[in-house]
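Reviewer 2 asked us to include a model.

Predict the structure of this chain.
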Amino acid sequence: MSDLKVMTIFGTRPEAIKMAPLALELSKRPGIDALCCVTAQHREMLDSVLDIFRLKPDYDLNIMEPRQTLSTITSKCLLGMEQVLEEAKPDLVLVHGDTSTTFAGALAAFYHKIPVGHVEAGLRTYDKWSPFPEEMNRKMVGSIADLHFCPTVSNRDNLTRENITNGIFLTGNTVIDALQTTVRKDFSFTERLLDQLEYEKRKVVLVTCHRRENYGQPMEDIMAALAYIARTHPEVSLVYPVHLSPVVQECAHRHLDGVENAHLIPPLNVEEMHNLMARCYMVMTDSGGLQEEAPALGKPVLVLRRETERPEAVKAGTARLAGVDYSRITAMAEELLENPDAYAAMAHAVNPYGDGQACRRIVDAIQWHFGQRKEPPDEFLI
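Predicted model (structure tokens):
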């Protein structure tokens, strides 16, 4: 039997963090010819992850351009994949999550009649406008995909409700695998401030906020709440790696510049972010990935969104949906800062997203599906 040719496709930093350990697992398996294609939808942020995992792509579309739009990203990715797929002729294409690269990669593979595997399948809010455009991207990829690698039972149940019942595997989330590589006790930050923070004496609150649906009044309220929390809690060091979006930059600096214990810093690479998360007191974020990563490190998460496609964290007690309302955000943050019992309940809750074996299960599932393995993969169960 000839080697199975499996191509991973990704283009943004969040995708790369979760796909890099899978690409490495594929490259180690006998019987698999592992190929990697990046679109570079996010160039610099993507490259930092590739460097950390020592992953060299076989194909690089390099599509990023100034002021790119969803249409330019999708069309350039789709056209670029045309040549790649015709040359490489993979037996399976793996895409991740819900980005424009994910949708375009899956659609390109479909046009070439190449089977598609969807890593991190089954996440849903059932509101096509939130998160935008991610909710529709993942639903459309779900309709195209032949193999669905679901992190959790509720993700699998979402697909079942949509009459997708074949090729589903319960694997856990690959981001937990990634943390095993990136988090180290002896880690030294390149951002000088992060090495100087007194993590044992102060309550370091890690913040991220960048989602499109939070632009406008929601972001104004979020930033105002962050400023209030920092000003009224001198024991807090608020650390905010600010997204490069001009909209986010302007709002963050307008509200938080001049607040002594609020530190606005440039975006961090994956190693720096994971190690900061491991040392912080709690996380306030509108990011999807951090809702999965922080619980694995025992850090409570306040989700700065109206809804989340990761309800497992809320159900398990590792995250709470703070929304975008000023009063609700400040009240929830103050409870965690002032009530040790409330903090401990979240910090010690069981992480529902994985056990560090997701990549192994996914590759086992692929080899079983294509007849290279006799036994089906084991399932991730909490």
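The mean pLDDT is 94. The longest strand covers residues 4-10. We have added this to the supplementary material.
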